[in-house]
C-alpha cells in the first residue's frame, strides 16, 4: 500500500509543480491530471453513477474528464477555501470518492 | 494513478473480507492492515510529527502501528459512526493524512 500511496503523492507533485505554486493544483494542472491520469475512472462516473458529480452540481450530460466545464465545476466543488487551487487533501477527497465508487462501496 | 488506486481498493477489500462484514474493517482487520501494509508510514508519524495522532487524542509515547492501544484510539477517531467498523471512506481519511504528511504538504 505504501508504494501505491507514493505513486499518488508523486503524481500529484508532478502536476502541481508545473506552475509557481508547487504544492497545489491550478485548474489547468487539475484538468491535465484528470484527463491523463484518471480517464477511465472519471468516464465510469459518467456512465455508471453520477452521484458524486451531481451532488456537486455538475449537470449529468456534461461529465467528461476532458470537458472544461466539468473540470471547472468539479474544481469549484473541491476547492473548499476557494483560492482557485487544490491542496493535496482537497484533491484526496476526489480520489476517495472515485475509489469508493470504483470499489463498489457506494451503491 | 488508476492502478495505484486499484491497489488501495483491492488491499482494503482483502483485509475487510476476513470476517462477515466484507466491506468494512473491524478493529482486528484494521490492525492487521496497518501493521503489515503501512509499517513505515505509521512509524514516521511516530518520529517526525505526531500531529495526526495527537489531534485524535493518541498520546505521543504510544504511537506504534502494532501497539493495540494506538490502533484502538486511531480506530475510534476514524470510526465516525461508532459502529466498530471502518468504511472505505473512513479509512480513506487515514490514508489521506498519512499521504499528506508523507508528501510534506503539512509542515
Automatic annotation (TrEMBL), chains A, B:
Q: Which PROSITE patterns match?
A: EF_HAND_1 (PS00018), EF_HAND_2 (PS50222)
Any Pfam family: S_100
In terms of InterPro entries, this protein maps to: EF-hand-dom_pair, EF_Hand_1_Ca_BS, EF_hand_dom, S-100_dom, S100_Ca-bd_sub
One example of the protein's molecular function in GO is: calcium ion binding
Q: Which SUPFAM superfamilies match?
A: EF-hand
Which ranges carry the EF-hand domain? 66-101
**CDD domains attached here?**
S-100 (cd00213)
Name a GO CC annotation attached to this entry.
extracellular space
Keyword terms, alphabetized: Calcium, Metal-binding
Q: Per its UniProt record, what Gene3D superfamilies does this chain match?
A: EF-hand
Which PANTHER family does this one have? PROTEIN S100-A11 (PTHR11639:SF130), S100 CALCIUM-BINDING PROTEIN (PTHR11639)
Protein known as: S100 calcium binding protein A11
Q: Which organism is it from?
A: Cyprinus carpio carpio
Lineage of producing organism: Eukaryota, Metazoa, Chordata, Craniata, Vertebrata
